[in-house]
């Protein structure tokens, strides 16, 4: 497998991003989790990991350093990992994050959008074994991510689009067709 590929898996909550990231990890990719920036800052501040503290820290970081802060604070890790391995980025959300990574890595960086209809995503979110969300919570999260995180830009500007309205096996088949693990 050629080394140095950098992919970000994006999509709305419940679309199958986590499973797609696991697929790439199983294929030997190393993961850079943008949310680790928040977890590291929580630890530095001596705060418990919970939704309230995470939101506060995320907003603080973005208020101080802009919407691309997670990408800026993750670039060195991406560079380090991509010298020897392929990299999958988890939790790229904003247009600014996308632009920073694209400007840094150019054509080595590819964006994969996992798309699932809203009704199916909400059904999955209601049934999943962790972080379950009601219909109202899921809709509120969608709206917040679109309005507050500029999530629509990267989702729309993808290099690859996978429709994930079937089984997990079908998702993996579609990911395999991209040729990112050759």
Give a written overview of the molecule.
The chain is of the alpha/beta class. It has a single domain (6-177), classed as 3-Layer(aba) Sandwich (Rossmann fold). The protein has 10 helices and 5 strands, in the order βαβααααβαβαααβα. The chain has helices at residues 17-26, 36-45, 51-65, 69-72, 75-82, 95-105, 118-127, 135-149, 152-156, 168-177; strands spanning 6-10, 30-33, 87-90, 109-115, 160-163. The chain has a 5-stranded parallel β-sheet, sandwiched between helices. Helix 2 (36-45) packs across helix 3 (51-65). The longest helix is centred in the first third of the chain and has 15 residues, at 51-65. It is globular and about 40 Å long. The chain starts with 5 loop residues before the first strand and ends in a 5-residue tail after the last helix. 33% of the residues are buried. The model has no long low-confidence stretch (mean pLDDT 92).
Question: Nutshell version of this structure?
Answer:
This protein is of the alpha/beta class. It is built from ten helices and five strands, in the order E-H-E-H-H-H-H-E-H-E-H-H-H-E-H.
Give the tags:
10 helices; globular; five-stranded parallel beta sheet; Rossmann fold
Secondary structure category: alpha/beta
Write down the overall mean pLDDT: 92
- CATH topology-level name: Rossmann fold
CATH superfamily: P-loop containing nucleotide triphosphate hydrolases
* Tally of DSSP β-strands: 5
Computed Rg: 16 Å
Text of the CATH class: Alpha Beta
Sheet with the most strands, sense and barrel status: 5 strands, parallel
Q: DSSP helix count?
A: 10
CATH architecture descriptor name: 3-Layer(aba) Sandwich
- What proportion of the residues form beta strands (DSSP E)? 5-15%
Q: What is the percent of helical residues?
A: 40-55%
The succession of helices and strands, N to C, reads EHEHHHHEHEHHHEH
Spans of at least 5 consecutive residues whose pLDDT stays below 50 are none
The spatial strand order of the largest sheet comes to: 2-3-1-4-5
Termini distance? 5 Å
Number of domains: 1
Shape: globular
């Amino acid at each position: 497998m050629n080394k140095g590929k950098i992919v970000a898996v994006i999509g709305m909550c419940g679309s199958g991003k986590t499973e797609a990231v696991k697929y790439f990890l199983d294929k030997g990719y190393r993961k850079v989790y943008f949310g680790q920036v928040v977890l590291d800052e929580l630890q530095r501040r001596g705060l418990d990991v919970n939704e309230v503290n995470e939101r506060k820290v995320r907003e603080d970081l973005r208020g101080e350093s802009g919407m691309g802060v997670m990408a800026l604070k993750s670039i060195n890790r991406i560079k380090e990992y991509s010298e020897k391995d392929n990299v999958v980025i988890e939790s790229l959300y904003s247009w600014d994050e996308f632009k920073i990574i694209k400007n840094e890595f150019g054509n080595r960086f590819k964006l994969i959008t996992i798309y699932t209809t809203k009704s199916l995503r909400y059904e999955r979110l209601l049934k999943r074994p962790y972080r379950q969300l009601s219909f109202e919570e899921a809709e509120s999260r969608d709206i917040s991510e679109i309005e507050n995180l500029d999530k629509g830009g990267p989702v729309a500007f993808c290099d690859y689009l996978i429709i994930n309205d079937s089984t997990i096996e079908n998702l993996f088949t579609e990911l395999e067709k991209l040729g990112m693990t050759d």
